[in-house]
Write a structure and sequence with these properties.
mainly alpha, about 70 residues, 2 helices, about 30% helix
């Protein structure tokens, strides 16, 4: 609401797919709206936690460019 999270609202799925597909969807959102999204996934080591915050997603996308 008004480009801010509503803390009382429960999360809901916007897109379901692989981690890569979800990161692509996230980066396709305007930067001004990215803070509204998290990615929920199965934990995959220390870098990929169950819930990825926008900050973590941006970092993973940046690192993906080096792989």
């Amino acid at each position: 609401m008004n480009k801010e999270r509503i803390s009382s609202a429960s999360p809901y799925a916007v897109v379901e797919g692989t981690l890569d597909e979800c990161m692509r969807q996230f980066t396709s959102k305007p930067i001004s709206q990215q803070h509204l999204y998290d990615i929920y996934t199965a934990p995959q080591g220390e870098m990929i936690t169950e819930v990825l915050s926008p900050k973590q997603i941006v970092e993973l996308v940046r690192l993906r460019g080096f792989l």
